[in-house]
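Table S2 (continued). Query chain:
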Amino acid sequence: MSETAALFSAKAAGHTYGADDTAVVAVRDVTCSVMSGSRIALTGPSGSGKSTLLHMMAGLEQATRGSVSWDALGGHPAGRPDQVGVIFQGISLIPSLDAVQNVALPLVIDGMPYEEAQERARDAIGRLGLDALAAKLPDELSGGQSQRIAVARVLAAGPKLILADEPTGQLDRAAGIHVIDVLIETADQLDAALVVSTHDRTIAARFASRWTMHDGALTSMTASNEDPIDRTTE
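Corresponding output:
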């Protein structure tokens, strides 16, 4: 496998929900690559296709046109938490499970023995300084705490690609900044790529690359100290 293989790549890829008169084009003709170590902020207005593109990167939505691939991950990553970790918009914890159980669950589903998964979960929670939350149920946690437990769930699996869909959208400013801090620190610890969708320009400015979507299309891709690549004229 080439050392320069992409964790995710798309070529003229798109996704359409429904068919005929009910068809909604969520992503259209996107060409992009996410390389190892990438730090990408995906920006754009609500309904621009950010969530669908992230779900395509995770293998949760298929491309209905064009092609996508995960060459550096050895193929389609769905159901493989050690390859791709996803932090969904809003709270994604299971209400009946405590924090440790929520963090361990993907590992158990992936075939890891229960006790080993629990140990990995406790270690990840501890590495994020969340030991006091380990036995708490989701309804005992604040929004920021719940999102940090979701980050611990990713850390426990040790993925190569981390995808976060508006992880600060329902948090106050201080909690949102902390969650982004933890995400970046987690990606650094794992030497993983990180893609975060956000409306917040201050958060986007913290990332080395900024991609902008509009009406389902990837309209610009900007790296630090570079002019944007205008995709609307390609």
